[in-house]
Amino acid sequence: xxxxxxxxxxxxxxxxxxxxxxxxxxxxxxxxxxxxxxxxxxxxxxxxxxxxxxxxxxxxxxxxxxxxxxxxxxxxxxxxxxxxxxxxxxxxxxxxxxxxxxxxxxxxxxxxxxxxxxxxxxxxxxxxxxxxxxxxxxxxxxxxxxxxxxxxxxxxxxxxxxxxxxxxxxxxxxxxxxxxxxxxxxxxxxx
Length: 191
Hints:
This protein is of the alpha+beta class. It contains 2 helices and 10 strands, in the order ααββββββββββ. It comes from Algoriphagus aquimarinus.
């Protein structure tokens, strides 16, 4: 009988703790996001290629992108620092990644809600290949990339502009996600 009472008391205490935890889920989630943003800011201060985090909405759906932002620094980028026809991590350091709160379409193809690393295959002429890969937490970027984990590949036409963007930027704006670096503008249509 004493064992039964001990088990019952333990179960009641566990349920009490669980119900307390449920009411704090949104607070906990908000504090985790704040801590993640703070860590990203602190990490970017000590890196040659600052860590950037952008959050916004595309077609009313939450969207986030995180990437290392390298600078041109007078270097020859396309075909040299970033070779043609080779998978590029689309940023610096660890793999860049995106987070979709809901299913979206990228260049007309469905991409389920989730977290994906973002890779690109630059081409000397014609459209570039943009890749969303299920292995998003790659510490060494494209060196750990594995094509078998690709969830979606789409072709995107680059635009070459006169103006120069020194640091790589990814912006959540029409037509979805726009990548700019040096004279490149890569507008990825997302809905």
